[in-house]
Amino acid sequence: MDTSLDAVLLTAMEAGRRAARVCRAVLAEAPEAPDAMAKLGKEPVTVADYGSQAVILEAVARAFPGHGVIAEEGSEHLRASAGDGVEQIVRLVSAASGREADFEQVCAWIDHAGKADAEFTWAIDPIDGTKGFLRRDQYAVAIGVLRAGKPWAGVLVCPNLPVDLSVADGPRGVMYVAGHGAGTRRVPLDGGTEQASHVATAADPQAWRVLGSVESAHGDPDLVVRMMEHAGIGGGFVRYDSQVKYGVVAEGAAEIYLRPRSRPDYRENIWDHVAGVVVCEEAGGRVTDLDGAPLDFSLGRRLESNRGVLATAGGDCHEAVLGALKALENA
Question: What's the pTM value of the predicted model, to 2 decimals?
Answer without folding.
Answer: 0.95
